[in-house]
Amino acid sequence: MSRRYVVGLAAVVGLISGCSGSPYRIPDRHTAGVQAEETRLAALLPDRLLWGPGTCEVRLLGREDSSSFAWAACEITPTAEHPSGGISMPVRVDGDRVRKPADGEGYAESIERLFPRDLADAVLHEPERLRP
After folding, report:
1. Residues with Cβ < 8 Å from 36, sequence gap 6 or more?
2. H or E segment at 3?
3. Closest Cα to residue 22, out of 132, 111, 131, 129?
4. In sequence order, what are the beta bridge partners of 98?
5. What long-range pairs does 99-108 form, CB within 8 A, spacing at least 24?
6. pLDDT (0 to 100) of residue 65
7. What is the pLDDT of residues 13-55, one digit of tens each?
8. Beta-carbon count within 10 A of 87 CB
9. Three-class SS string for 60-120?
10. Among candidates 65, 59, 66, which has minimal Cα distance to 39?
11. What is the Cα–Cα distance from 97 to 93, expressed in whole angstroms?
């Protein structure tokens, strides 16, 4: 291989990797602060997201000021009044106020409004990586 070919190949690889950007960094679940916030959200979210008693598994995706951004996977506890069911969605939590994205055509726009830009991109383009 000629030196010119190797230098050209290295430049192309560098250009491509520089354009792809790095993936959104999810907070480390092994830290005490992340664990505490996930526990708080898991206790808060069933009452806000479900139509009856249930549980939520939560993945903290980030924090900004007093806002927490998470993905919640919740399941209702089946009763005679409420059959089994569940949801999985990204949420924004400000204190005890829970905001969820719109359904259908308004989904992408609401994600961009609720989440910081880099997290919104991750939610829209790589949701499988963000779920609990």
Report:
1. none
2. helix 3-20
3. 129
4. 93
5. 100/49
6. 94
7. 444 444 455 689 999 999 999 999 999 999 999 999 998 889 9
8. 17
9. EEEEECCEEEEEEEEEECCCCCCCCCEEEEEEEEECCEEECCCCHHHHHHHHHHHCCHHHH
10. 59
11. 6
pTM, to two decimals: 0.80
C-alpha 55/C-alpha 87 separation (Å) is: 11
For residues 73 and 55, what is the distance between their CA atoms, to the nearest angstrom? 8
DSSP class of residue 57? Answer: E
Strand partners, 8: none
User: Maximum Cα–Cα distance for the chain, whole Å?
Assistant: 75
Higher per-residue confidence, 56 vs 80 = 56
Give pLDDT tens digits for 60-110.
999 999 999 999 999 999 888 878 889 999 999 999 999 999 999 999 999
Tokens representing 62 are 């980030």
pLDDT value of position 10:
44
